[in-house]
Amino acid sequence: MTQSGHWISLKLKDATILNKTFKKYFKFGRNFAGEFVVIVLGVLAALAVESWSEDRNERTLEEDYLSRLIVDLGRDLQQIGQARWASFAQARATTTLLFAIDDPLAGEIPDFTESIKSIDFTVPATEVIDNTTMGGLVWMAKRSRSFSPSQATYDEMLATGRLLVIDDERLRTAVINYYSLTDGLSEMGEWIYEATTKLEEVLRPTGFNAFDYGYVDEPLPLLRDLNDLGIVLRDVRRRSLRQVSLLEQVEKEAKNLTNSIDEYLAAR
Q1: Angstrom distance (rounded) from CA 55 to CA 49
Q2: Separation CA 197–CA 103 (nearest Å)
Q3: Are 170 and 246 in contact (CB under 8 A)?
Q4: What is the mean pLDDT of residues 35-40?
Q5: Cα–Cα distance between 236 and 143 in angstroms, integer?
């Protein structure tokens, strides 16, 4: 064999070896790429299933919390109605007592809301002011009814960080705003209690400590002789009417929030 033929033979042999090596590594790379794709797809599928499951759990949790909030709001609305009636009754009783003791500012009723303006406070809570009815008037003037929202569900959502399970941002904000508004009523209850406690102190010299004042021969002269009674009664009235105004705001928000939650759940 000539030198050139030997060189060609070596080149062909090298090419054959290179070709076999290339095929070997190409097959290895193809197998590796296939396994890699399978692994990636498996991981992505697992993540997708996990995400779907997590989202489903969150939506279930969201529905549960919103349903519980509706129950809480229903209790709030019932309590608001009772507190409003008690506050109106307290304002009417204090006004009647102010007219009975001839307070010069008895007719100056604070204007807070349209519902308060629509009430004629010149119509007394009782037509006859005597030792029989005085007990009821004083009792109603001293009786305060505060509002305590049912916020166990809301507190749980805050404590666990699950407030964000409410997916709709506007609805979530409405929930936060509602319970922020109820904080003002809690403070209002303490404010009214302060005024009724002062009323108790002013009335103490009369001995009016029972609901039935039948044992008192002439209750009105005793009341008229009390220092600061008119001032304290006007303060109780002002605070009770202020509570009515706040209760109406909270009642409106509670109804709006209930309707929003109902519509949101119905659209799911």
Answers
A1: 10
A2: 21
A3: no
A4: 57
A5: 10
Q: How far apart are CA 266 and CA 268, in angstroms?
A: 6
Q: Residue type for 200, please? A: E
CA 54 to CA 52: how far, in whole Å? Answer: 5
End-to-end CA separation in angstroms for the chain: 87
pLDDT for 21 = 55
pLDDT at residue 10 tops 60: no
Q: What does the alpha-carbon distance between residue 3 and residue 268 come to, in Å, rounded to a whole number? A: 86
The first and second tokens of residue 253, run together, are 């928000």
**DSSP string of the chain?**
--HHHHHHHHHHHHHHHHHHHHHHHHHHHHHHHHHHHHHHHHHHHHHHHHHHHHHHHHHHHHHHHHHHHHHHHHHHHHHHHHHHHHHHHHHHHHHHHHHHTT-TTTT------HHHHTS-TTS-SSS--STTTHHHHHHHHH---------HHHHHHHHHTGGGG---HHHHHHHHHHHHHHHHHHHHHHHHHHHHHHHHHHHGGGT--SS--TT-S-HHHHHHTSTTHHHHHHHHHHHHHHHHHHHHHHHHHHHHHHHHHHHHHHT-
Structural contact between residues 161 and 131, judged by C-beta atoms closer than 8 angstroms: no
Residue in this structure with the two tokens 């039935």, named with its chain if needed: 212
If you average pLDDT over every residue of the chain, what do you get? 77
**195 exposed, middle or buried (CB, 10 Å; 0-12, 13-18, 19+)?**
buried
Nearest C-alpha neighbor of 214 from the set 130, 114, 132, 127: 132
Determine the Cα angle at 187 with ends 146 and 66, to 5°: 75
Selection from 246, 245, 235, 136 nearest residue 192 by Cα: 235
> Which distant-in-sequence residues (6+ apart) come within 8 Å of 256 by Cβ?
174
Q: Region 188-198: what's the mean pLDDT?
A: 86
